[in-house]
Specification:
single chain, about 0% strand, signal, mainly alpha, 4 helices
Length: about 120
């Protein structure tokens, strides 16, 4: 007999299909996490733009430094962590650090502006 019987071909075909599906699952999860990381970078860009504005307080130089620190922190967070929860938690520390340097009135103004900008990120 040159060809295997149907009883051998069907289980092999099923196994190949199952392996293909199993290989696709981590990719879907990774793409989902990558999309979230992209949204975090967008979020950080909103903060950076807002930190650069006059309403953030401080000198133009200090505002630029705060904006760069936000972007650097977000970049490090998205490259170091691999789950949404880790990225979200650690990005929160970036935001907290940036906000802690602002006066209360500036913080409130920045948060109001941020709500508008960030709505396009997620």
């Amino acid at each position: 007999m040159l060809f295997p019987s149907k009883s051998v071909i069907l289980p092999v075909a099923s196994l190949v299909a199952l392996i293909s599906v199993a290989q696709a699952l981590p990719q879907v999860k990774r793409d989902d996490v990558q999309a979230f990381k992209d949204a975090i970078i967008c979020d950080a860009n909103c903060y950076a733009a807002e930190l650069r504005q006059e309403t953030a307080g401080g000198t133009a130089e200090s505002r630029e430094q705060d904006a760069r620190q936000m972007l650097t922190c977000a970049g490090e967070v998205t490259s170091m962590f691999n789950t949404k929860e880790e990225v979200k938690t650690n990005f929160g520390f970036c935001v907290q650090a940036s906000m802690s340097r602002l006066a209360d009135a500036n913080r409130v103004t920045l948060q109001e502006q941020h709500s508008e900008c960030v709505s396009g990120c997620y």
